[in-house]
Specification:
alpha+beta, two-stranded antiparallel sheet, 2 helices, 15% strand, rod-shaped
Length: 117
């Protein structure tokens, strides 16, 4: 009598599908967490820019005896802030007034931050 042994090497289609589903579930859990970290880091970078602009405006007010300053007087190669790097397509105000908050809008097209000098 002749017997044949069937080899069961490799994975079945069902096993592969289960692995794919598990990977999909893990990705669905991880993506929102990554997006939250990304928006948080963007907000921190924008807040840092706002602090630099606020400090530059205060210095400009002291040196020039005025209470308003244009962003062009604060940012540039020979100004108080050498370069203003945007991180999320945000819009900075064009003028700064002493005692007024700095409001940056359009952060990633959705958020607004306010910084009181």
């Amino acid at each position: 009598m002749k017997t044949t042994n069937k080899s069961t090497k490799g994975f079945t289609l069902v096993e592969i599908m289960i692995v794919v589903v598990i990977i999909g579930l893990l990705a669905a859990i991880a993506i929102p967490a990554f997006q939250k970290v990304r928006s948080s880091s963007q907000d921190k970078a924008v807040l840092n820019n706002m602090r630099q602009l606020g400090a530059a405006a205060d210095q400009y007010f002291l040196e020039n005896g005025t209470s308003t300053a244009a962003i062009a007087a604060l940012v540039g190669s020979s100004a108080y802030v050498k370069a203003l790097n945007t991180v999320a397509n945000e819009s900075y105000p064009l003028n700064f007034t002493q005692g007024s908050p700095v409001i940056v809008s359009g952060i990633a097209g959705a958020r607004t931050l306010t910084y009181m000098q």
